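Encode chain A's predicted structure.
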Amino acid sequence: MIFANAMKYPLLLSLSLSLLGCGDQLSSNQKAAAEIHVDTLTIDYITLRLSNELPGRVTAFKEAEVRPQITGIVKSRLYEEGSYVEEGDTLFEIDPTTYLSTVNSAKAELKKAQSSERNAKKEMVRYSELLKKKLSSQQLYDQAEATYLEAKAQTAISQAALDYANIELSYTKIKAPISGQAGFSNVSEGSLLTSGQTNYLTSIIQTDNVYVDMQQSAVNLYKLKRQFKDAMTEKPVVPVTLTLEDGTTYEQQGKLGFVDTQVEGSTGTVTLRAVFPNPDGELLAGMYVRAHIAYPEAREYLIVPQNAVVRSQSGEPSVYVVNDDNLTERKSLVLSNEVGSNWVVEKGLEAGDRIITSNLTKIKSKQTVIVDNDITTKEASATNTTPTTDTAE
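Encoded structure for chain A:
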């Protein structure tokens, strides 16, 4: 019995020591698990010339649909489809036979009226002389004068009829209303055309210059106007550049030419129109492009990487920063332009703030972290970690 008790106490002591050792190991593991390692970016001002990127569509500078103004049969097509035509070039010819006949008839009517006018004038002059010699009455003279004036009016009517007949005859030659690239012909020789028909014969597009129509939110448009107003005293020329659908940059630079005076109620956007030179015809009507409206000058901005920004359920952006005591703090942001893979910060941060760029899913406010690596915005820019594609030279 004594032997059994003697063996019991050493076993209890050994078990107690083992439990104490396990407790220390568990506490150490929990402490290690609570320590979160992060990388930070110390933000500083960098010089950028920002630009707004907007979706746009190319439209023709001038476009005309060619339609007949008289009724007749197409005699011939006198242009090559797809070719460049000058204003006034004859594109189609309508059979002029009936219109020539009308012109000849009008000419004959005019000659008849002119002859009657001459005779009436002679008669009026004769009665005028007789009246002076008191060999005729005033009534006969008045009748002769009225006959002359009526004949003169008939001559004017006949002249107008001849002019109208000549105009209709001229319409047998359908001419280009503007210079530009002529499209496909929708009619062929022998087709019957009617005055005022809805179907056009062909279209002409002028593409030496083109429009690019864009949609900009009213709020951002106001900010853009403020930028230019603050930077320039005179009316500014706003430069615009284009990126084509395949990602290439269009070589010619355009300028903002028109801003609509009304906001679209359903979308809250305003239509902007830029004018671009198109000497080689690279821009075709209907093409979709990306337009970039550059700000008037380079300024200093704070930027943060997009992957460092976290958003609430309502979509409000924020970042985690680390203070001097290595405690985390969540700061709400107001963001503006997108620059490469970064956001420009309008409000919420100051130069020198250290924002967390890694392990964001494990971060909470007022949490102690261990900073493994910290770089500045300029260092990140130098190593292309923070792209600045719109940085001013």
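The helical segments are 2-34, 97-132, 138-170, 218-231, 377-382.
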